[in-house]
Amino acid sequence: MQALLDNFADFDALMRVYPLLLQGLLYTVTLALVALPLGLLLGLSIAVAYSFHHRWLNVALLVHIDVFRAFPVVVLLILVFYGLPFLGLTLGGFAAAVLAIVLNNSGYYGEIFRAGIESVPRGQYEAARALGFKPLHVVLYIVLPQAVRNVLAPLASNSLELVKTTSIGALVALPELLRSARVAQEQTYNPTPLMAAAVIFFVLLYPIARWVARLERQALVAR
């Protein structure tokens, strides 16, 4: 037991490197706070544009969704960070991680919002149009509030997964929580910082995971 504590719960080692972990936590939270609303906004824009049912626009939107959902986010980050410089665009680690996460999740959010919009009965559109609403106003003020309510559980679930993917920043030396924990491990020759990072992730995400589970149960009951 003592050997286990010395290797995975070394308080002295943790005290020496906790500033690194705090820095990593700040980067992780910042990355999530930037990428999450951008991913939601892009996905919502895709779904709203799709709802107007212009043939060639819908084809382009479906290609976007399928392409960026097909790429693992780690592969997408490599392409963004190492590939774009060949096209004359060089991004830092933070910007590259944000772009990769947003592009990947925009496909998932787009499909979720699209399913929500299509779940709203067509009678809602027709009634709003009969009252004189313009097509865009019908979508924004009549359809979207109902659509979001219908897909709140999968939106929350995907948002939870997005926060987890912020750890890919370690791949491009972004000092987020995982990367900082690995640097701290190298400095202390002890895996305690990695265990601390795991605990931090758990403490941050477990309440959200429970909330998502409750939303999913409520959605099942509503059906």
Automatic annotation (TrEMBL):
Signal peptide: none annotated. It is found in: Cell inner membrane; Cell membrane. The chain crosses the membrane at residues 25-52, 73-103, 194-213. Its main location: membrane. GO terms for molecular function: transmembrane transporter activity. It is a multi-pass membrane protein. Keywords: Amino-acid transport, Cell membrane, Membrane, Transmembrane, Transmembrane helix, Transport. One of its GO terms (cellular component) is ATP-binding cassette (ABC) transporter complex. Residues 25-213 form the ABC transmembrane type-1 domain. InterPro entries: AA_ABC_transptr_permease_3TM, ArtM/GltK/GlnP/TcyL/YhdX-like, MetI-like, MetI-like_sf. It comes from the Bacteria. Gene3D superfamilies: MetI-like. Pfam families: BPD_transp_1. One of its GO terms (biological process) is amino acid transport. Belongs to the binding-protein-dependent transport system permease family. HisMQ subfamily. Part of the binding-protein-dependent transport system for glutamine; probably responsible for the translocation of the substrate across the membrane. This is Amino acid ABC transporter permease. The lineage of its organism: Bacteria, Pseudomonadati, Pseudomonadota, Alphaproteobacteria, Hyphomicrobiales.
